[in-house]
């Protein structure tokens, strides 16, 4: 069964006093275009997450987001006093080396200096920064759950596309069958039109030779071969939709088949030479265009 390239999957859980949420979204793309935003504490597993997504999603413009919120009971951030003290000593040493005036020791000046030191890297840490192997495994499992939900969404959308394609193929097949009553009428009209024009000429003509030329001309306008090929393409389109997925190539294959269907319909139009048949061909083209538009959504 076909799958859509458009999809959405989400999974969330509370892990080590943190609410972890994974979201995956995708739109159409010829290849896999993956954008990832992961919480910093889980960056070491990002390559693992990327590999999991690449294996399961195959194609599409994919946005992956892994976010973390601390639970209400989480510990408050902790000031790393040793780090702050080291920064202060370095600042004082640099001040002396440069011959700068000592910083104002009043409350305002000291507060400004302290605020500056606390903004330095590693001056403040939280329990969120400490990630155990068990927590990483739990987050990895959560990513897997989001991927499963995402694939389920794609399959659901694929079922909708399947119904649309089946309807459009059935419409084209019905239109193709409706051409038949006009074929004999068209042939007779062409034959009569040529005979009428010849009779208006003030010359005699070889009727046997005319018959031979008429047969040759009408054979060139015969559309049985095009009808047969178009019917085969319609069958192949349905068979391809029902086939097992092959590395995300079903959408491309359906696109190629739709192109071949278009060639046969165009040839029918150029050979029809009859108003009713041309109107039918226009309707077939309209149905095919709708197929081509939706094929771009197929994985």
Question: Main traits of this protein?
Answer:
alpha+beta, Ribosomal Protein S5, domain 2, 3 domains, four-stranded mixed beta sheet, 63% helix, elongated
Would you write up a description of this structure?
A 4-stranded mixed beta sheet has the order 1-2-4-3. The protein has a two-stranded antiparallel ribbon with strand order 5-6. The longest helix has 68 residues, at 133-200. With 299 residues, the protein is α+β, with helices and mostly antiparallel strands. It starts with 6 loop residues before the first strand and ends with a helix. The model has no long low-confidence stretch (mean pLDDT 82). It has 8 helices and 6 strands, in the order βββαββααβααααα. The protein is elongated, with a radius of gyration of 36 Å. The chain folds into 3 domains: 7-74 and 132-153, Ribosomal Protein S5, domain 2 (2-Layer Sandwich); 78-125; 157-295, no CATH class.
Strand order in the largest sheet = 1-2-4-3
**Which runs of at least 5 residues are low in confidence (pLDDT < 50)?**
none
Cα separation of the termini: 11 Å
Total helices: the number is 8
Number of strands: 6
The run of helices and strands is: EEEHEEHHEHHHHH
Shape: elongated
pLDDT averaged residue by residue: 82
Spatial extent as radius of gyration: 36 Å
Kindly state the percentage of residues in helix. 55-70%
Structural class computed from helices and strand pairing: alpha+beta
Beta-strand content estimate: 5-15%
Major beta sheet, specifics?
A: 4 strands, mixed
Total count of domains:
3
């Amino acid at each position: 069964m076909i799958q859509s390239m458009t999809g959405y999957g989400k999974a969330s859980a509370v892990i080590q006093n943190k609410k972890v949420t994974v979201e995956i979204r995708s739109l159409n793309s010829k290849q896999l275009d993956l954008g990832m935003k992961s919480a910093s504490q889980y960056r070491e597993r990002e390559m693992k997450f990327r590999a999991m997504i690449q294996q399961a999603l195959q194609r599409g413009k994919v946005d992956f987001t892994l976010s973390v919120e601390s639970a209400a009971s989480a510990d408050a951030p902790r000031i790393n006093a040793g780090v702050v003290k080291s920064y202060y000593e370095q600042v004082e040493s640099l001040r002396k080396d440069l011959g700068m005036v000592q910083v104002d020791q009043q409350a305002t000046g000291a507060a400004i200096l302290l605020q500056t030191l606390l903004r330095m890297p590693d001056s403040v840490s939280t329990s969120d920064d400490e990630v155990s192997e068990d927590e990483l495994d739990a987050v990895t499992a959560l990513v897997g759950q989001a991927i499963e939900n995402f694939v389920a969404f794609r399959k659901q959308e694929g079922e909708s596309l399947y119904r649309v394609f089946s309807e459009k193929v059935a419409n084209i097949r019905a239109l193709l069958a409706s051409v038949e009553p006009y074929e004999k009428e068209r042939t007779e009209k062409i034959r009569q039109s040529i005979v009428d024009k010849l009779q208006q000429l003030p010359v005699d003509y070889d009727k046997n030779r005319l018959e031979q030329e008429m047969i040759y001309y009408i054979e060139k306008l015969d559309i049985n071969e095009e009808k047969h090929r178009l019917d085969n393409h319609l069958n192949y389109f349905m068979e391809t939709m029902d086939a097992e997925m092959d590395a995300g190539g079903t959408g491309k294959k359906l696109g190629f088949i739709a192109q071949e269907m278009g060639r046969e319909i165009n040839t029918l139009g150029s050979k029809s030479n009859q108003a009713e048949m041309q109107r039918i061909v226009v309707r077939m083209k309209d149905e095919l265009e709708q197929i081509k538009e939706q094929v771009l959504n197929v994985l």
